[in-house]
Design brief:
191 residues, RbsD-like fold
Length: 191
């Protein structure tokens, strides 16, 4: 059971309050809040093919599965999107298959004011040809299935536009389907 630490003990040096030696020791060990970038940067070397990173809007639900880590980013959506895309690009072990909700292509200014400029900003961050559009419910079902075995990291933003989630399915950067086919043929030939 976690022990609650009086707030005054966490800031005792600043407030000149005193607390018991035991409370002071616990306060010194209390975790410091990390930014979402720090958490993702620390997790990225542990992630590999079949892991997912998802950037979402504000109404995206908090999922309760053990295989899902949810972080909050207060920066603008496209800034978060660009940061995550760059982190993946700079990684030496993974790249990403990128998906977005198919519904996003049908959103227009008359029903979702501001969506055109958001789409244009998203296109600047992501290569349009490199994004696959899939029905939202299908993507959610994939995440649900994947998170049974593999880690999913969700970064929730303060964006309030629907169907704007971007899904990065990680894959191995140094091994691809062509190399696997060659290996499989060699194994089959050796039988």
């Amino acid at each position: 059971m976690k022990k609650l630490i009086p707030l005054s003990c966490l800031f005792a040096p600043l407030l000149f309050h005193s607390c018991s030696p035991q409370e002071q020791a616990i306060a010194e060990q209390a975790p410091v809040a990390s930014s979402w970038q720090t958490v993702l940067q620390e997790k990225l070397p542990l992630l590999g093919h079949r892991n997912w990173i998802v950037i979402t809007d504000m109404a995206y639900p908090l999922q309760s599965k053990d295989g899902i880590t949810t972080l909050f980013a207060d920066e603008p959506y496209t800034e978060v999107l660009g940061t995550v895309a760059q982190m993946i690009e700079n990684s030496h072990h993974v790249y990403a298959h990128t998906y977005q909700d198919k519904e996003l292509t049908f959103l227009t200014e008359d029903i979702c004011p501001g969506i055109d400029s958001l789409k244009a900003d998203m296109d600047k961050v992501l290569s349009r040809s490199g994004v696959t559009r899939i029905d939202h419910e299908e993507l959610i079902a994939k995440l649900d299935n994947v998170s049974n075995l593999f880690e999913v990291v969700i970064i929730k933003t303060n964006l309030t536009k629907p169907y704007t989630s971007t899904f990065f399915e990680l894959d191995c950067k140094y091994w691809d389907a062509d190399k696997q086919a060659i290996l499989n043929a060699k194994i089959e030939a050796a039988k």
